[in-house]
Amino acid sequence: MDDLRNYIGGQFVAHSSSQWLDNLEPATGSHICRVPLSDASDIDAAVAAARAAQPAWGALSHSERADWLDRIADALEARYEEVATLESRDTGKPITLARAVDAHRSVSNFRFFAGMLREHEHEVFEMASATNYVINKPVGVGALITPWNLPLYLLSWKVAPAIGMGNTVVCKPSELTPLTADLLMRVIDEVGLPAGVVNLVHGDGAGAGAPLVAHSDVDLVSFTGGTATGEKVAASAAPAFKKLSLELGGKNSSIVFADCDMESTVAGVVRAGFLNQGQVCLCGSRVLVEDSAYDEFRDRFVEAVEAMRIGDPSDEATDLGALISESHLAKVQGYVELAKREGGVLLTGGTSCVPSGFEGGNWMAPTVIEGLSPDSRCATEEIFGPVVTIHPFSSEDEAVAIANNTRYGLAGSVWTSDLDKGRRVSEAIDTGMVWVNTWLHRDLRVPFGGVKDSGVGREGGKWSLDFFSEAMNVCVKHD
Ligand code: TXE
Hints:
Elements: E1 6-8, E2 11-13, E3 20-24, E4 31-36, H1 40-58, H2 62-78, H3 80-91, H4 95-119, E5 123-126, E6 130-138, E7 141-145, H5 151-164, E8 168-172, H6 179-191, E9 198-200, H7 205-214, E10 220-224, H8 227-237, E11 243-247, E12 252-256, H9 262-274, E13 284-290, H10 294-306, H11 326-341, E14 345-348, E15 367-370, H12 377-380, E16 387-393, H13 396-403, E17 408-409, E18 412-415, H14 419-428, E19 435-436, E20 451-452, E21 455-456, H15 461-467, E22 469-477
Helix pairs in contact: 1-7, 2-4, 2-6, 3-4, 4-5, 9-10
This protein binds ligand TXE.
């Protein structure tokens, strides 16, 4: 594959330095392409292009911009298989997942926000002597920074509402997974979106991400990534009063009550724990089980985990692929070693498991650990890999106390046949979202985001439209 280029002002352009990063395939370790290591001068050019394009773009009507979003959705949909294949190759995830989740959601993000824009109406507040009406103006130039676990899914989740509300943007995708961001730029170029509305600068966090967030002509930052990076982004953006949305890490509990439907719960909790090799911020990486059902659940859970097929991501029979990078694999394996030192017992996994022919890749068997204290490091820190800890509890109060005993507050799930209990327990958890008897059952209209160290702000549905705009009230006195 050819070296990648930045997309600035409607042109694919070379970056200004001579520095490159090798993009490696997680499943094999083989070289895919070179990624530009852009620097502050490339960011300057991209922000200038976005700024120049903003007034004309912002002056279009909602329905005109919705039409552009639909054109992008159509063009992406025509490349559905290409999106899935590139995403699977770049991330190591199974092709079936890349099709069903990544390719599918990337198209639906553009379609969904196109529909929302067409329905968007000014809010009106009547008084006896005046009428207030609220308009949503563009914020200006947005910096959109995305991670490697769901590359195009998350980029499209930001680009669609950001440009839909009249902003222009500079995207900085993860340097580990640049392929589908590059494809989106080719799609945007092909449909003829006005130059400068969407720009993309490749590069790493220090070289490209940090100068983008700090740029004095950037008005808004939407960041999805790790909590430690989120702290740096917040420290850089806050003094300039930039609008800021941070979607950070999670350490989410799946709470299993004895009255659950055991078969569907085991399947649901396995999916919550291991989807995308556990590399989703919403993953249920700590499983809390009511003590009267603990032994039965644990045995069935381990059996289901061991039945997952690990292997070639391009094989449709594969359930689990490779981890994103060698260093991330080392981090995840480090947590398994820590778990052993903390007194944990490995019920399955904990080892590397390299499929034949994939010796250069980053492979790890799905791992289940019991016997750890729920406040141990492995049970409270984000591991972000195929590692789940399992813990018994004896009452609702104890389950909630354990679920709330982390610095994170992003998601969770509750499994019970008593829906009153499901709602009661859900509402007691300090988190942004909870599912009852399901997991990652997404409706694009609902708010998405976390509390505590999982982030600041909400995106999704009208919350995205609010974040990517400035609400302004006009009060008109009656005659
Ligand atoms: O993410 P980073 P990393 C968690 C997960 C993982 C950990 C670290 O626990 O192990 O974070 O992952 C850009 N200014 N999540 O290091 O660094 C970077 O180039 C501006 C959870 O890979 O947060 C990339 O584009 N940008 C998460 C993006 O930030 C900077 C998904 C995310 O990378 C920057 C991924 C800086 N100073 C990891 N430094 C989730 N919420 O789903 C880096 N970047």
